[in-house]
């Protein structure tokens, strides 16, 4: 299969926003392309996230979005693999693994110590994919949220 992965730039906001909107719908959120577009635009413009888009035969097929964090034990930069999505038409072709590999490469390029992620316990696909890609499950921690 012919695919390529490119780092998203401001010119790619519409493509990234469309995929991001579909990703949010997958997680039971109401579709809202315009708000997604503004959100992605702000993240890219302010260099607050890094997005890699995968294209299959020129068609946008998925993305991974990374946010910079710092690890208290490793005392270095790490990347939060916040969002990973492959359009249903392109699933089962190894694109998620390719996007994760690109995120790992980004760690090398930026001197980061690694990647971390969180996913829902019910995300059967992700919970099988991540260990296959070398991620270790951390059952010692709970994640809590506070929303204003």
TrEMBL record:
One Pfam family of this protein, by short name?
Acetyltransf_1
Q: Where is the N-acetyltransferase domain?
A: 3-148
Keywords on record = Acyltransferase, Transferase
| Name this protein carries in UniProt | GNAT family N-acetyltransferase
Q: From which source organism is this entry?
A: Chitinophaga pollutisoli
Q: What is the lineage of its organism?
A: Bacteria, Pseudomonadati, Bacteroidota, Chitinophagia, Chitinophagales
